[in-house]
Amino acid sequence: MSFNNLDTLYRQVIMDHYKNPRNRGTLEGEDHLSIDMNNPTCGDRIHLQLQVEDGKVTDAKFEGEGCSISMSSASMMTQAIKGKSVDEALTLSNLFSDMIQGKEIDTNGLDIGDIQALEGVSKFPARVKCATLAWKAMEQGVGEDSKE
Fold it and tell me: Any idea where the NIF system FeS cluster assembly NifU N-terminal domain is (predicted)?
């Protein structure tokens, strides 16, 4: 597949997650983690909710406002971490952070799914904070959960 075709495919994946976000909404009940973060540079904001049971992310939902990069990244992130252990979710976050900074990544067989579509954001440093907002919220949430 040529670079232009791959670039077009990745843009389509990003726009699909933006227009049809996965896991948008709120979790029922009160037994979950809630994290609010924003990017004051551009106004993106996210309200992330995580259900963590026995060291595993059993559910994840988000609400928020922002650009297509931040909202599609939140959609992709919630899809990627559901069903994963907290350690696997944090590993995914580290891989994503490296990828978004333009570093070569080795997934060691870990399925990163649609997340790969955001790799091109590394060429636009001003957009990196948009792409990482939901991931930083998740890291904060599971970090707080492990302290309890």
Answer: 10-130
Which SS3 state, helix, strand or coil, does residue 2 take? coil
* Cβ–Cβ under 8 Å, residues 112 and 76: no
Identify the segments of the chain with pLDDT beneath 70: 1-6, 145-148
Contacting residues for 50 by C-beta, under 8 A, at least 6 apart: 32, 33, 35, 57, 59, 60, 138, 141, 142, 145
pLDDT in tens, 67-92: 999 999 999 999 999 999 999 999 99
Residue 98 main-chain phi, psi, to 5 deg: -65, -45
CATH number for 44: 3.90.1010.10
Task: Identify the domain containing residue 54 by its residue range.
Answer: 3-147
